[in-house]
Amino acid sequence: MTLAEVLAHRYQWEELSRDFKLKQNHSTIESLQWFVTHGHASNRFREGFEEAKGLAKTIINNHKAGNII
Q: φ and ψ at 48, to 5 degrees?
């Protein structure tokens, strides 16, 4: 995954989660991990939640695998 792709996913996640209840309003790896683990409690019925969760997982998995170039 290129840096441009990561930034595009991050932007999409930020747009989808703009009105979500989050621990932090930053899209760091830590906040994305929190969202994947705990975000469903307050956000699961919000429009775009599943897509936002999928984007967060994609970013996290590529980061863990070292696939971001």
A: 90, 0
SS3 letters for 28-69?
CHHHHHHHHHHCHHHHCCCCCHHHHHHHHHHHHHHHHHCCCC
pTM of the model: 0.88
Q: Which of 42, 13, 41, 38 is nearest to 28 (CA)?
A: 13
The C-alpha atoms of residue 44 and residue 68 are separated, in whole angstroms, by 28
3-class state of residue 9 by DSSP: helix
The pLDDT tens digits for 1-47 are: 888 998 999 999 999 999 999 887 777 899 999 999 999 999 999 99
In the block, residue with structure tokens 């863990």: 64
Nearest Cα residue to 33 out of 9, 69, 58: 58
